[in-house]
Design a protein that fits this description.
- The chain is built from two helices and eight strands; from the N terminus they run E-E-E-H-E-E-E-E-H-E.
- The chain is α+β, with helices and mostly antiparallel strands.
- A four-stranded antiparallel β-sheet has the order 4-7-1-8, covered by helices on one side. Strands 2-3 form a two-stranded antiparallel sheet.
- Strand 2 and strand 3 form a beta hairpin.
- It is globular, with a radius of gyration of 16 Å.
Length: 113
Amino acid sequence: MVSMETIPDGRLLRVYFCESDRHDGHPLEEAIVEVLQSSGISGATVIRGVAGYGGSSILHTTHVLRLSEDLPLVIEAVDTSEKVEAVLPKLAEIASDGLITTQQIEIHVREPG
């Protein structure tokens, strides 16, 4: 039987933005992942959406007739509440046009061995 450790004070972080968003001339996803990594966040995943819209209500889609090179992106990261809360001010600074959400979660990780 696999042994699992439960971390009850986990937090899920999501950052929503578009492919065209930049920070200091570089793709925003690269800047966000770099901040998460340098802050010691356990891991992050960049997810490319097939359709979506944000506060501007402009639809971004991969539909053939509306081919967009500005698709929605979401970065998800999971760690303890303490680590996620500590990185939020820096993320808010570099992802000023994006949307950042957090959600309290339980983390279940496989124990080594």
